[in-house]
Amino acid sequence: MSDTITIRPATRDDVPLVLEFIRELARYERLEQEVSACAEELGEALFGERRYAEVVFACSAGEPVGFALFFHNFSTFKGRPGIYLEDLFVRPQARGRGIGKRLLAHLARTAVARRCARLEWAVLDWNEPSIGFYRSLGALPMDEWTTFRLTGDALASLAGSAAG
To answer: Which one-letter DSSP state was computed for residue 97?
Structure first.
């Protein structure tokens, strides 16, 4: 592989490739059974009238070897947007070359250019290699926060409740 790494935004034509990377990440995270995204819905979410997320690829000799999917969140305390990194994945054969760091540096530059207050993401507790990598960049765990999630029946139930 070439040492030249470039970062480029995904295009609508890349939707099948984005889905491929999502599936590879899910396999790595032992969550492949959770992937239900289809190309049509993903394409609409990324490139439709309202864009919910963005994707960039890290390419080696023009070949995508890593990706990052991110979107804006908002800090009420700072009064400014932030960037939330939903997915970061580098294919195994391309690891150890600084590609993950280049993707994160690209997102950091994007956050600074967009006047974002922060760049945030979550990592699975068992993923020690990634945790060590993130700590080496100066990222700090938010141990005092617990993430909650509503999905499926619980989400539908709350949506249909009188309290909603």
So the answer is: S
